[in-house]
Design a protein that fits this description.
Length: about 120
């Protein structure tokens, strides 16, 4: 997976090859979330702040080029485009969120991957 493009890696699943199967060479962990004052928001946590900064890492084997990977909502809507990240690298992104429950995860070629992160915004 280390020599593949994100487009190639997005098509290779661990199990049955469907779009819901985990990707073999792509993974993303949203490790940390905080509000605009720097207060930590736990996974599945609640906040009244609508500007959330996420710290995420490329934990897969394939490096991401600029714009290859996005953060998406549960409905597939693109929340932001992620910067280029090699395996193990981290980035911070700030998202303006509306009130409600947001299930956020990485996506490539329209295929979600990595662990979802849920935030409830009052």
């Amino acid at each position: 997976g280390s020599g593949m493009t994100v487009a190639e890696a997005a098509s290779i699943a661990l199990t049955d090859g469907t779009d819901t199967s985990p990707r073999k060479y792509l993974s993303c962990v949203i490790a940390y979330a905080e509000d605009s004052t720097g207060k930590e928001i736990a996974k599945d946590g609640t906040t009244s702040d609508k500007n959330i900064t996420l710290t995420l890492a490329n934990t897969g084997y394939t490096s991401w080029g600029e714009g290859d990977v996005t953060l998406c909502g549960e409905d597939g809507s693109i929340l932001c485009t992620l910067p280029a990240l090699a395996q193990g690298e981290r980035a911070n992104v700030t998202l303006p969120l509306t009130s409600g429950t947001h299930i956020i995860r990485a996506s490539a070629q329209g295929i979600p991957f990595g662990t979802p992160f849920t935030i409830n915004v009052k």
